[in-house]
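*Target chain*
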Amino acid sequence: MNATPSSQRMEWTEGAIDQFLCTEELGYQAIDLPFGRRTPGASRLDLCDIAFGQDLAGKSVLDVGCYLGYFSLIACERGAGHVRGLDIDPERIRQAKIIADIKGYAPEYLQADIERISDADPFDIVLCLNVLHHLADPIGSLRKLVQITRHSLIVEVAGFGGHDARKLNITPAVGWALKGRPVIYVSEGHAVTNEITAKQKYFFSPEAVTQILTNHFGVFCEVQTYRSAFKDRTIIKATRRRIRHLLIVAGPTSSGKSTFLDHLSAGGLPDNVTALLPKGVERWPQVTANRLVRRDELALEEPVLDGLVLHYDILRPKTTGLGAYRGDQALDLITCAESLTVITLRPSKDRLIKQLVQAEILEREKPAKMSRRSLAHAMGRRVLERGPALVGAALSILPGFRGRHEAGKAASRLMQARRLSRDYGAPRWLDRWYDRWSGYVNAVAPSANIINYDPCNRALLD
C-alpha cells in the first residue's frame, strides 16, 4: 500500500481529535496530530535519523511491533514508498489506523505475530524496536528479519541499563560483571512471581546482539551501536552487503580450487570456460570460506561489490561439524548476490586421492611455525589454566611451546587427510557429496548459472 497521504479519509475536526485522545487508552509513542495535539509518550526523532536519514524516497519500510505507528508515520513523512506496520495486539492496530487517518497517511497495518509468520515480503529497511525481549524465540525471529532485510536492520534492545536492571533486580555488582560481555539474560518468566518478566523473557546485552549479527550471519558489512536515551537501551544498526555478481568456486578438499583461482587471475583458463564466466572476474577480490567466517577480509567491509569470488570446500558440513550447508554463514553470501555463478570442480577419484597424498607429504615436510596472534592466544589459554606463574617463565618455553602446538595442528591435518583418502575410495561417497551440493544450490538459487568442470582434463562436464 502506498505511503502517501490518503484521498479517502474523513475530515478530522479539532473536537473529534480531542474526543479521540480522551476516550482512547494511548501512550508510549508521542505522535504529533493536527491542531497542536499529541499522543502521550516519548518522541524518538533521534532513532528516526539513525534508521531513516532524511530522505526515504521510494524505499520500503517494515515496522515490527509498530504499536501506535510512530515510526511508520515518520517513514511516510520522509517519503517512503511502501510502509507496513505489524503488531500482535489488534487494539493497537485499530488505534494506529485511526491515527494514520487523522494525519492523512495510509501505511499498511496488519495484526501479525512475527514468530508465526513463515513467509514474509522483503523490505529495504526493517525495524524491530524493543520487541526481542517480549518474544519466546528471539533468535529465530531475528533470523527471519535478517532474511527479509534488503538494506538495513535496526534493532533496539532491552539489556542491563538502569531501567531494565531495576526491573530484573540486577545488582550493580552483577551489572558490572555483565558489562561488555555477549550475554543473554533469562528472566523468571512466571506470572505469579513477577508479572512484568512473565511477558518480558530475554534481555540482551548490546554485545550479544552485535555478535549474533556480525558473526552468526554472513550478510552484514557493518554493525553499528548507538546509546539510546529511551530507557537507557541500545540501538543497533546492521547494514547488509550487496554483491552484484558472486562466483563460487567449489569442490571437495584437494580438488584444485586454489590452482583454478590462480589460473583465473592470470587468464589461464580454457577459452570455453572463460566464456561462461562474468566479464572482469579475474580482477574480483577472492575470499575463502574460513577467512570470511573469521571476518579477515577487508574487501567485504565495502557495502557494495561489483563482484566477489568465494573459494568453497563442499565438505565443510563434514569437516566443520556443521552437518548441513544451511548452517554455514559463508553461504549467506548467496542471499546478498544479485547474480550467482557456481563452478564445481570434479576431478577423478584417483586424482583426488593422489593430490591428498601429495598434500600429506608436504605437511610432513613443512617447518613448524606459528603466527604471533595464534601463539599469544594459545599462551593466554595456558596462563589461565596453569596460573600467573607461567608468565615469568614464558620467554624460556616459547620455542618448545610453539613447536609442540604447531606439531599438534599438523598431526590433526594429517589425520584428516588420511580419513578423507579413505572416504574418497569408498563407493559413491563423493557422488553423494556432489549430489548434496548441487541439490542445495538448486534449492536456494534456482536461477544460478551452474558449471561442472574437470580441472585435470581442463574440460567442461555435462
Remarks:
- Residues 378-398 have pLDDT under 50 and may be disordered.
- The chain has three domains: 14-240, 242-350+444-461, 352-425.
